[in-house]
Amino acid sequence: MHDDRTLAAERRGLEAEQHVVDALYARLDDVRDEAGRRLAGIRREGPSGSPQNRSERDAFATLYEDRIMQLDAVEDRLCFGRLDMSDGERFYVGRIGLSDADHAPLLTDWRAPAAQAFYAATAANPGGVINRRHLTTRGRTVVAVEDDVLDVERLHEAGLDEGLAGEGALLAALGARRTGRMGDIVATIQTEQDEVIRAPLTGALVVQGGPGTGKTAVALHRAAFLMYHHREQLERRGVLMIGPSRQFLRYIDHVLPSLGETGAVSTTLAGLVREATITGVESDEVAALKGRTEMATVVKNAVRERQRVPQADQEVRIDGRTVVIRRSDVKEAQSRARREGRPHNDARAAFAKDMISRLTNQLMEQLESHLDADDRIELERDVRDSKPIRVMLNLCWLPVSPAQLLRDLFSKPHLLDYAARSFDQAERDLLLRPASAPFTEADIPLLDEAAELLGDMPGDAPRAASSEASEEELDYARSVLDTFGGDGMVSAESLAARMKGSETRMSVAERAMRDRTWTYGHVVVDEAQELSPMAWRMLLRRCPTRSFTIVGDVAQVASAAGTRWWPETMDPLFGDSWQMRELTISYRIPAAVAEVAQAFATAARLPVSELRAARELDDAVATTAVDGVDALMSTAARVAAQHASEMADGEGGLVAVIVPDTMAASARAAVAASAVDGADVEVHTARETKGLEFDVAVVVEPAAIAARPGDLYVALTRPTRRLEIVHAEALPAGLA
Ligand SMILES: Nc1ncnc2c1ncn2[C@@H]1O[C@H](COP(=O)(O)OP(=O)(O)OP(=O)(O)O)[C@@H](O)[C@H]1O
After folding, report:
1. What is the DSSP-derived secondary structure letter of residue 48?
2. Which single residue of 116, 231, 275, 450 has CA 20 to 30 Å from 92?
3. What's the rounded mean pLDDT across residues 439-452?
4. Is 209 labelled a binding residue?
5. Residue 303, pLDDT above cutoff 90
């Protein structure tokens, strides 16, 4: 109950916070203006001066541009918390750290050790905090404050108990309408999540949790946390974030910038493989087979098959003389070339050189003994230019692209018999497909494995030069900083990296994406239960230090080659250096939805985790049975349109119709037919909704989606407010 006095006190509290927030934004503006002025100054100087001067200026310009981008990205909800400590200290927590012109701290970065208490303190374990205050801002205006008192007596003693407020920052955040883009949770990170976010960088951390427990959110916040605490290391090597689909990446793409980080590479597995256009689909059986680790040997054998020895010695005429391409010479030259350990396409040059030398020797032996070095060079050139010899050398060591290697492997039975000899005939028959067949998801790790063994094709663009600055370059960058001053915005490492040639002036993200052999400082994998053992090999290659954050839910697995039990996948990859944490509270789904989803998952024997919902909502689940398939889509579309139009009249929100794969087209038609102006309804197959969320999810014909139980579990757990089930067939066990 509020009386007038407490209302007035609350208003004063709000006003006081508004002053603080105004000062913070003023400082943000100053810092941004200063960076803008410096950038303008550099640009005014134009492209004059020595190449070295220009290079320095370019490097500074990019760094100021990055800094301005970072400052722009933290504008929304710059400050969201305040901590009152028992020693009388008070500080504000926000997206980035800010200090005043005299370096006195104004705002503490949420990732700094001092801010941890904001997330970790509890009444039982206050850690020196007497009150934690959440600030809600809209634009630059403070619209609400909410106090979380951890030590009432101390608070009273300190005279801070006037104007306390409490609305439930978490519940307010959870109740917000969905926009189709993920928001950050930096203001309301919960203790079990905070422990994951701040776990050490080394080794692999697996985070298992049911739907909506914040795995994606936590993974992104952890990436931002690690980049802040291990800036030097991770700025140079970058952080790789792997998501399940482009749509998912769009959904999360502004979370990291809003947390003050712009340096991560977000992509899908397919995005890591240059040549892959994935349009094909294949059966679960084939996908499972292609995901097996033994496929690495199959690809290796296929590459080895390109190093052939002719059936018999071959004679070739050069300028009226005969040389013999001997099987024994070919074998020896191949062994030597292989011993160098270079990829197939690169090693071809060593093989060819060796063979040309052997054939030149044969010519020398046939000619007079007084021939000198110059004559030898000429003879060598004759051998190299001989067309029949070139053809023979190519046949013995054929350069090949990863895509061509796989096309041949899967379309030529004799090749499969040779390369996949450890598989049985039925398995090899499964792998066989026409040479013109498009690539599939399961081909991606195989293409990458092939690229690793083959290397670049002759004539490929050279790789990006090493990004690591040498000590000398670092020293130079430090001296440049000493002379010109970097205002703390620029580190010597990043300046040195940027001053290396034009190629390396690109951001780490750009350089990493251009270079297939780039190794990252840390890799974050979302929906990690979907990855096959071959896909894991692909990621491990990209992070030899094996520093991984792996988030997923084995109960949601859809891929036949995915993980159903973490130790089975992780032990072979990480040995003792992985650990698992569990998240157990769902911040997305209301309690009634969680109950329905868990009942289904248990009946379908999915390996579900413990799951409690953070919120109870009335009327969160509704089921509509219809007569016959014809009525199915029209009913689903009508139910969806009704919700969409109600929401369009209110605060807005997202409605999705989630259907079995075979019904996507008819669902789109039905939704278009019953569309209401200004009220959008999305149509997705269950698989497409992985990782996404909507205010209302209309799940159509669960029995058909449940052909893959993990898919239905995903579909049922997408809504933040209401689950509508529309069905003609009998409901699957657990839902009935
Ligand atoms: N501490 C929190 N405060 C506010 N919102 C949160 C918190 N944790 C999670 N959420 C919200 O809960 C929703 C679900 O989070 P997220 O998508 O990260 O879950 P998930 O575990 O990855 O789910 P799924 O397994 O279904 O992909 C998101 O809207 C997220 O912003």
Report:
1. -
2. 231
3. 94
4. yes
5. yes
Asked if 260 and 224 count as a contact pair (C-beta separation under 8 A), the reply is: yes
Distance 381 CA to ligand 1 centre (A): 66
* Chain Cα centroid distance, residue 403: 24
Assess contact for 256 and 186: CB atoms under 8 A. no
DSSP for 469-519, written as a single string: PPHHHHHHHHHHHHHH--TTS--HHHHHHHHS-TGGGS-HHHHHHH-TT--
Question: Are 702 and 727 within 8 A, CB to CB?
Answer: yes
Please report the ipTM that was assigned to this predicted complex.
0.98
Angle among Cα 496, 497, 503 to the nearest 5 degrees reads 130
Cβ 588 under 6 angstroms from ligand 1: yes
Q: Whole-angstrom Cα distance, residue 209 to residue 581? A: 8
Q: Is the Cβ atom of 214 under 6 angstroms away from ligand 1?
A: yes
At 79-134, the pLDDT tens digits run 989 999 888 889 999 989 999 988 899 999 988 988 888 887 776 677 888 888 88
CA angle, 673 then 679 then 682, to 5°: 70
CA angle 604, 609, 611 (to 5 degrees): 105
Residue 653 CB less than 6 A away from ligand 1? no
Tokens of 285: 């059986």
| Ramachandran assignment for 464, one of left (phi > 0), alpha (psi -120 to 50 degrees), beta (any other) | beta
pLDDT in tens, 514-535: 777 788 889 999 999 999 999 9
Distance 52 CA to ligand 1 centre (A): 48
Query: How far does the centroid of ligand 1 lie from the alpha carbon of residue 167, in Å?
Result: 20
Task: Give the whole-angstrom CA distance, residue 274 versus residue 545.
Answer: 24
Provide the pLDDT for residue 501: 43
Distance CA 50, CA 87 (A): 56
Is residue 188 within 6 Å of ligand 1 at its C-beta?
Answer: yes
Closest CA relative to residue 664, chosen from 696, 693, 700: 700
CB-based contacts of 54, cutoff 8 Å, min separation 6: 47, 48
Which residue among 252, 551, 588 has the greatest number of ligand 1 atoms within 8 angstroms of its CB, and so is best to mutate? 588
Phi-psi region of 203 (alpha: psi -120 to 50; beta: other; left: phi over 0): left
- Residue 666 main-chain phi, psi, to 5 deg: -70, -30
Measure 236 CA to ligand 1 centroid, in angstroms: 30
* 216 is known to lie in a ligand binding site: yes
Helix, strand, or coil (residue 608): coil
Q: Is 353 annotated as a binding residue?
A: no
pLDDT-derived band at 290 (thresholds 50, 70, 90) equals: very high
Is 459 labelled as part of a ligand binding site? no
Report how far residue 685's alpha carbon sits from residue 664's, in angstroms, rounded to the nearest whole number: 6
Which ranges of 367-467 does DSSP label H, i.e. alpha helix?
373-385, 387-396, 402-411, 413-419, 425-431, 444-454
Q: Write out the two tokens for 410.
A: 């899967």
pLDDT of 650 strictly over 50? yes
Greater confidence (39 vs 57) lies with 39
Cα–Cα distance measured from residue 162 to residue 43, given in angstroms and rounded to the nearest whole number = 52
Nearest to 353 by CA among 380, 322, 391: 380
The beta strand positions in 569-680, using DSSP E, are 578-583, 585-590, 612-615, 621-625, 655-659
Task: Please tell me whether 211 is known to bind a ligand.
Answer: yes
Pick 508 or 110 by higher pLDDT: 110
If you average pLDDT over residues 181-204, what whole number do you get? 83
Q: Decide whether any atom of ligand 1 lies within 6 Å of the 260 Cβ.
A: no
State yes or no: pLDDT of 300 exceeds 90.
Answer: yes
